[in-house]
Design a protein that fits this description.
- The complex is a heterodimer.
- Chain A is mainly alpha-helical.
- Chain A is built from 22 helices and four strands.
- Chain A has helices at 2-59, 70-80, 140-144, 146-170, 174-190, 205-234, 237-250, 267-278, 284-291, 300-329, 331-351, 355-383, 389-418, 420-441, 459-465, 469-498, 504-529, 535-548, 551-555, 560-591, 597-625, 628-652; strands at 86-91, 96-101, 115-124, 127-137.
- Mean pLDDT of chain A is 85; it is low at 658-663.
- By secondary structure, chain B is α+β, with helices and mostly antiparallel strands.
- Classes of the chains: A mainly alpha, B alpha+beta.
- The interface between A and B is large, with 95 and 89 residues.
Amino acid sequence: MRRFDGVLLVFVTGVLILGLAAISWQTIRSAERLLLPALDQNARTLARSVSGLVGQAGDYGIPLDRLVRAEDVLDAGLAENPEFAFIEIVDGAGLVVASATNHEFDLDGIDPERIETVRAPILIGGAEVGAVIVGTPDLVARLMVRELWLDVAVLLIVAVLVALELVSFAFSQASALMLRGLAQRLSALWRGDFRPHLPLKGSGTIAQEVEAVDSEIDRVRAEHETLRLAAEAKGDHEALAQLARIDKTHKLSGRRYETPVGLVAVRAPVFLFYFAEELTRPFLPSYIERMAVPVAGLSVEFLIALPITIFMAIMALGQPVLNVWTERFGRSRSIRLGALAAVLGFLATAFAGTMETLIAARALTAVGFAVVFVAAQGFIVDRTGADNRARGMSLFVSAIMAAMLCGPPIGGIIADRLGPSPTFLVSAAMALIAYICAVVALPADAGRGTVAAKPAARLRDCAIVLTKPAIFLLMVACAFPAKMILIGIAFYYIPLEMSATFEPSTIGRVLMLYGLVMLLVVPAISAFSDTKGKRVPYVVLGGVMSGLAVAHLFLWPAPWGAALFVIQTGIAQGLSTTPQSALVGELGRRYFPQLSEGGVYGVFRLVERSGNAAGPAIFAAVWAATSAEVAILFMGFVLIAGALLFGIAMLAAPPRPALLPSE
Amino acid sequence: MRKLSLTLLAALIPLVAASLALGSYLNYAGVRHNYLELVGARMSTVARRMANDAEVAMSLGVPLASQDVMNTALEREAEADPMILSVDVVADGGRVLFSSDPARRDTAEPAADPAAIRHEVPIASAFGTREGAAVVRTSNAAVEGALGDMGRSILWLSLAATLLGILVVAGAVAMSVRALWQRLTARGPTVSGAMVPEETRAAFASIDAEHSAIALRLGQKRGAAIPGRGA
């Protein structure tokens, strides 16, 4: 199946690369025909403007060789027209009296033949006494559309990732599920893997193939067992050794921890749904800023943070209760309902004219979001057991990561070209497509039977769990500020601050780095950092690294400082998230054997997600009271101090008892 | 298989079309943005120079409304650039004092001017009070005309690329699904006589051979085990 997916992806990627390359090539050719004459006209106008000024000075009796601060005038001219390489004032003999150079161009590296110059005479009292010369490199038209190529490259990456999701969606259809099941079997047997697969029900040719393969696997395993019993009965150690080798090579006695093929159905709606929200990341804070008018007692910074905080708070607080509710209402039905709520929320956000309506619209979107998030997780939990739940969840998490990678840059590009309100309409359309995918792909909910799910976090559990210093510090001093800094700085402050100087597409490219790091780097480093015995050091290291990431915002100019902050935060969180999660279970079992593991994790998730909500509010409050710099340092300090405190608490904690076998 | 092909086509064709359309639009919009910025910068330069001339004259004691020689300078500027509809000096109340276009002189500036893109630079007195503005009106039709040629060339190429892309993707889907179907439904027997996909026969043959060797050693008859699920 991978081969099949691969062939299709290669074709789609090839078509997109060739198509976009041809279109971009044509654009460059057309741009040169359009922009070069316009540049020439601009150069003439600038030269005439400067020569007019110098002529005026001459008419007042100031000769060319006595001009004062002429370079300042020329520099200002170049600053306003950055496409020109130089401006010179020359006297009648052709000697340069004053000049300014654009440092964006390496003039030494450009062939003088490749620089077009225009000349405007300087007239004093009707006589030509010199000239103003403006130089334009031929390559400037290409440089002007350079930014465009970045957008096209981003579009290509996103289109390929979306294609991958769509191929996956096509295989989530009932008609293709059997095909995927057979492909899984073929792929396993090709690797010599004879572990049994989860049974598949169906009819038709492919179903017969699946049944034949499963029967043959069972026959081989049964024969192996028969031979092993016979060898044992005969005491033939050599035969037993050979059988053990075959067993090991072909995994005959192993169990397969595979996700049910039907689970993939939830991936496309989740991806599209998150993609819709991620589209808004680069410009949401600046969009809110337009409607933020100072209210007594509340700063503008805090008001801008308010809709983001409310959104995150609904997400955090809704999850404990929604688990039971979505099971009762039906997981598939809940996903569809949540997607519709989000469609309305995005539409209302696009047309919001006041802060109150904007907050209401974002709250509605958040409700939809929380319902989809919990229902999709529940959909997976309902169809998996303890042995394959992690794999099932990885489907869900990787869909979110892919959306985090694709959404911000495309959202930024759309906002650049069409504006923020139409981008919210695009988000609404994406949420609607997510709804349609959910209608098409998700199975109908079974009748309303007994509800097995429990609230993800109970107040009683919170009160118990947070009494132990070690677990309190892990949750409140490490997990909470880690999310606080992510949402507070990366998703609130950076888009807001950068919007003053950069286009949303640039902000989107910076924010996509978080998704990129999460998708590529985290799987590698999380396996490394989850090694037993190293969990505490990695949680501390992750916290300190994440806190130190704020230094980039002071050390490097935008957008590089912001980009490095996002990358380092992503890596640091990748280092600490997996061991943090594992430590919650470990410490929970150690300190609260009376509580279910789910209860302890519920508290952890609640505290962690509360950090999402608190981040923008706390950052904005400190920013309003002091300055943005102090707020950034404060966030970094809280994270570093929290991580170090947790490390000290764990050093002081009594040695841990023997681990359970599952650990 | 037909359903799978149709689902894949329904998913991939809109994706390819939308990506190429968005790519084309980004290309066009990017160049359009650069071009409008260039035109805007040029018109601002002209407006600034006219405003500067007016301010210099005012600093010499000539009130803005009395700078009659301004008309000649404005005409000269308008002639130098074919995109300029007119260069005006407008009083603070909205009255056109001087203009490169004689028909506009001593008229009220209309509130809306759909034929033109306005670039305005204020004219201030030596005391910083606003006396009026230098306004350059660029021909909307000329700007759109220049952009239209480029837009059309990108549009045609984009349409051709999209059609070709759709054909290639449709062909790729049809061939891939057909190959997958053949791959999955080509069958062959195992030693037990069961018909399984051809691709899996080697794996079954390999383990069956190993089992046969051990069965021979143990004096067992092959196939002693009863095939069945749940082993």
